[in-house]
Fold each of these.
Amino acid sequence: MGQGVLTAPRAADRDALLSDAGLERRDGSLLMAGLPLSAVADAVGTPAYVYNAEAVRARYASLDAALGSIPHRICYAVKANGNLAILRLLRDLGAGADIVSAGELERAHAAGFPAERVVFSGVGKSASELRAAIAAGVGHINVESAEELDLLAALAQGSRRTVSVGIRVNPDVTADTHPYISTGKSGIKFGVPTDQVAAAARLIGAHPALELTAIAMHLGSQLTDTAPFREGIGRLLAIVDEVRAAGAPALRALDVGGGLGIRYGAEAPMSPEAFAAAVVPMVAPTGLTLYVEPGRFLVGSAGVLLASVLYRKHSGGKSFLIVDAGMNDLVRPSHYQAYHEIVELEAGGRRLATVDVVGPVCETGDFLALDRPLPMLEQGERIAVLGAGAYGFVMASSYNTRPRPPEVLVDGGRFAVARPREAVADLFRGESPTPLG
Ligand code: LLP
């Protein structure tokens, strides 16, 4: 399946995985943009997230160029990796931001995104979040239910601003990805069902402080094929016709969401060119601006998680590498059974064993890889977990009172800490052993 559940890469894919990340091997050492990752690990310790700025730029440029024949805006999905350094990088490239909380609104603002380049999505925006978005003047707010629209209408009324609204439609399209991240199917919590869209559009049209500017969808994440996009856009186009016929003079955007997949192992994700070839001819005749909201595609391959081997162990016929990064640092393997390629920072041409790479957290589900062909590394040797730039640090927790790792940016032959390692004291700041006195 698209999510790459436990699918090992064919040997040939390892080169592609390295090159997607801007990684190469020289004399056995793994380099990111020409910089030895061992030097980064020496400087900041492990576990640590390391992001390659140039790889993010290359991804952005490839998508921007592929969509170049029609008016478009790439709104980066902040949830994938909200580090301010990553956000600033994408802002400087001309990206907008797709946000899902008031917290992400503040992040986008702190990174310097102009409010009109921000799109606010999400199924459960609170009144205070909607108020903050109205006050900031975001580009459009994608509503996901009739009740949310009623609340937005009431808040807009009192704000003396005209609020641009998008309707996020649930197009009822099945996407081949992990069920937890499939978001465009009927019967799940996301989007306004197609048969409720006309009423929502009427309400917006009749309201003095609202204008309908966008029709939107998001089908799911880690999609590797264009078919669901074609199907979903087909449904959106029918809705565009319908709402235009009823009168929607301010409609200017068709937002087709995020979801472009990346290579984690053996999958062959669609290229930006293939995506554009499927989408652009469908959208161009509408004259609408095409919005896309990629997260993973822009940053996923550009990041690695560095970890060190703490211990080796043989037990019950299995071999374990116990490393200093666990499910609290990178939850994707244990939460989605996601495959992440693991490579040594210093390759030694050693014999491969079959190992489980596990973390220090007290759960049997705390693993980064199962039954993986890897050398039985020595204590203190370091590894890079690939494809960790999206939904890595942002999903990290301090479970087991483990401070979250630092985030490092590599650019122009240099590296710098973009967020320091948390201190243990950060983890219980504000707690009181005697809250009742
Ligand atoms: N737009 C909306 C409305 C979304 O809900 C999402 C992701 C995106 C854009 C960006 O999707 P992307 O281009 O990154 O696929 N934690 C999961 C992924 C959850 C995605 C949720 N929504 C994972 O680690 O696979």
Amino acid sequence: MNNLIKDIDFISAEEAQVCDFKTTEDENTGKSKKLYIESYGCAMNFSDSEIVASIMKENGFDTTSNFEEADVIFLNTCSIREKAEQTVRKRLTDFGRVKRRNPDLTIGVLGCMAERLKEKLLEEEKLVDVVVGPDAYRDLPNLVLAAEDGIKGINTFLSREETYADIAPVRLNSNGVTAFISIMRGCDNMCSFCVVPFTRGRERSRDPFSIVKEAEDLFAKGYREVTLLGQNVDSYKWSPEENNKQRLNKKGEEVSEIVTFDLLLEMVALVDPKLRVRFSTSHPKDIIDAVLYTIKKYDNICKYIHLPVQSGNSRVLELMNRTYDRDWYLERVSKIREILGEECGISSDMITGFCSETEAEHQDTLSLMDIVKFDFSYMFFYSERPGTLAAKKYADDIPLEVKKRRLAEIITKQSQLSLERNKLDIGQEQIILIEGSSKKSDAELKAKNSANKVVILPKGNYKIGDYVKVRITDCTPATLFGEVIEHNPTLS
Ligand code: SAH
Ligand code: SF4
Ligand code: F3S
């Protein structure tokens, strides 16, 4: 996994967690051709690359970590900010050089940038052979075959049904312990700054039984944590009628109940008490108490909620079309604290310098941060995206230096708050799941606690995938340090 912080408009206080892009690993199952995929953007995009790898595997491709030896290179792209698209353009120049040496190479642009730019990408980037949007990955083998015959191809059809529910993802960059499961696609919100509804299409929920099956399969293979992914998981909704499917329960009775997010969480939590369940992203307007009570009820549902606020000022939130205001957000946080207590991790996304944001309104974001005390945040300055509501309706009128100065202020604030929150953990006993080696030292391992914080512990005889009970002894703003009290503690 590449942990490179290249995107200067994306700065996280949790620096160790920033993953700029992921590539495929070497896999040799004797297939005749090699596929290299580089993925940018959010977890949903990384998860899509695993579906793409699965589709291509069925069609004669092994993955490689070396793009120089690939027959096909896919760039799975992100459009969320201008910088994300610039990075991809630069990368296409690198791959163009390889293609000049090897004209048989097929280059494909997938994902959100493909969807946003469509034919324009083929016109502007002469060395690109195929352009495929997020709902058209089943068409990739055909398009690649045509490209091998010199025919360029594009499919950016956005579907109302596609969820790839039947495709078993090929796990890429896997630690063998934690995995993503996409539970829905698209987004029906219209946040005025956001390009996602245009690149990912209408919201649709995946069959819950296929989600549970995927979680069961992962558990059987030794995975110990799944993260349920969606742009707005709280609006997950699935019913057999809507999906024209007949479902029978174990007793053979027809199931007609609507599965909402709280019920889905419960279904996945019941797979096994040793399988941790996380989810992302929650929307402040949609997170209901039933979800909070379900989190409370199951020890294996992690006590952590990513609840992006975007701004602490109600006028700005209205311009952003977030459909909640400052008071609503603070009420939801109080409810989280009331039901799940102080130890529940809460993180956020924030944007500085949105259209017409005043200095006083920026101060409201800082004051909201002080009230909520986020454990960490992903922080950005506003980047206007063509075609969005904000681009059409409002002037992008905050000078870049002001956007960046405000961003620096919220980053400083978040770093102080992360340290303050982490200090509260010192002395506590926590059950953590070991995910890998520590980047800094071979003598240490890296784990996560329920609140999604990284915990470093001595290597001992512990293995990746083990649960360990530790006492937290020290911290930085980004990391906790623990001493082991018990190996494989009882998980209720
Ligand atoms: N569905 C999630 C967000 C997905 S995009 C939600 O509603 O919270 C991830 C984050 O990127 C957003 O939360 C927002 O903070 C940021 N972002 C989106 N569009 C942006 C833009 N035009 N400029 C800067 N940041 C943006
Ligand atoms: Fe974008 Fe808003 Fe949808 Fe999140 S909820 S993906 S920010 S439109
Ligand atoms: Fe980027 Fe698309 Fe995700 S725009 S953040 S890759 S949904």
Amino acid sequence: MHVQGQAYAPAPEFVAQANVPGMESYADLYRRALESPERFWAELAAQQLHWFEPWKEVFRWNPPFAQWFVGGKLNAAYNCLDRHLGSNGDKIAFLWEGEPGEQRRITYRELHRQVCRFANLLKKLGYGTGDRAIIYMPMIPELPVAMLACARLGITHSVVFAGFSAEALKARIQDLGAPLVITADGGYRRAKEIRLKDATDEALRECPTVRHVIVYRRTGSPVNMQKGRDYWWHELEAGVEDECPAVPLDAEHPLFVLYTSGTTGRPKGILHTTGGYLLQVTLTMRWVFDIKPTDVYWCAADIGWVTGHSYIVYGPLSVGATSVLYEGAPDTPSWSRWWQIVERYRVTILYTSPTAIRTLLRQGDEWPQRHDLSSLRLLGSVGEPINPAAWEWYYRIIGKGRCPIVDTWWQTETGAIMISPMPGATPLKPGSATLPLPGVVADVVDQDGQPVPPGQEGFLVIRKPWPSMLRTIWGDPERYRQQYWERIPGVYFTGDAARRDEDGYFWILGRVDDVINVSGHRLSTMELESALVKHPLVAEAAVVGRPDELTGQAICAFVSLKGSGPWDYDQLAAELRDWVAREIGKFARPAEIRFVEALPKTRSGKIMRRLLREIVTAREVTGDVTTLEDFGVIQRLIR
Ligand code: PRX
């Protein structure tokens, strides 16, 4: 395959050792997957995973509901732990560092023991296959322990990112109807304690389904324990056995629900099941991260997002890798922290987001230059488009021009990486996620599903179901059907715009729905708006994303107020920003609040967000405004 334009071909030394060496190997895999997808996936599933019982049917498609490896039995925790114990039991699974500086090295054998003990504890409380648990924890080893213990017993887990507020936690507990919450007293972030148990207590005032709360003691600060409901992890664990058999579960058994923002105010619970999910996270560890037994791999995401589920917990453990797990912020105690970690553990693969790269870039080259980063051999990026300047800095200053960068496109819904370079094969173009992985049939189409010519912008879609795809939206199959499979008939709609170039490379252009991407975190404009209108002074609110050099997009909220004032607008803006932080989480705090007399609406009363987007981006309105009710509103907004 010939690649035009400025491209970085993989170095011969990298190709020579790569799991997928050279473009012919990629092309061969891609062709095999395209020609007979079921055979392709079945062969890999047999090779990559441990099954208690083989499947009877590879794929069953009752559009848009997919089942993979029907009738097969396996266990995700068994695949992540037990199967490594024979030859790799003493290998390190996690190199953990707490923000205050503690270090722990946990071998596969030790992790297995801890998972078994916690699973036994859960059994003691009466939980087992078919139950559901919410996990709300800091980035400590006990978070993956809790997830894997659930997986071991067939308890479907839903991890809520520790940066979410009590309100957001409450909504997720209620939607899942969970009887069990696993949390900690707190965790550390920027040298401050995040008081998770306090937030849990607040959330639980309106969560009647919850019968038990298990609290891990991380910080040791005083917390309230409600008798008969709240239990200390260490107290319950006393006296439990070190062994707990992994339950053979159906390939389609629900492994986890992860809430993400959609186009309405209500977050949607994305459901992933066991076999197909585990297969694709395992394969992408090999294909995209080129993982080898000797690697020290570090995905610097948070386990509370899908990146952490797939590429801190299930993917790396399934291939028996050694991973770094870091609890805190990159600037604590100084901007050296990440580079110290790379140096200390001799990290070979680093995976992070463009916002993190831009943030680190801004601090200057002195920080990374003070440290020995020569162990690095591969870099990764995820969550948002990476701009060429950040790409170049990552490549030159961090990778010293030696390390390929894998720009990985995927979503909570896809479960695993879908479009990405294979580092020993694909020539790189800064800013492009390059080509779809084998088995992924991606396309760029117009509204009717017709492919658009190279260079033209269109909707990014996936034409064929894939094993790690979401199975449904928890409790709302109709919404699943409408949002993903009916927008463009017959194909999976990603919600992203993209174009392909002459070489077939994909360039992701960002969301086309009411989702904004701030620092690689997905936020729904409707969710932000409903948080704002809960404030007693707010009459109406409209939220749009505006371009931001650091965070990709920033939240800009237009707000009209009840009554006639007078108001102290600065104070009110600060209050509303805090209000949103309380309702959703600090990471959702708007960058800008603009007070307006009225919002621009169509005659039928719909807020015209497109106009607001144009105002925050270009400060002028060019599109069609004939359906607007009061053009004067626009004039006043621009001013
Ligand atoms: O818009 C795309 C963007 O992030 C969205 C998915 O967000 P989430 O489900 O939170 O998962 C993030 C981590 C997988 C996508 O619809 N996105 C993700 N990766 C990239 C990206 N945009 C451009 N380039 C990427 N590599």
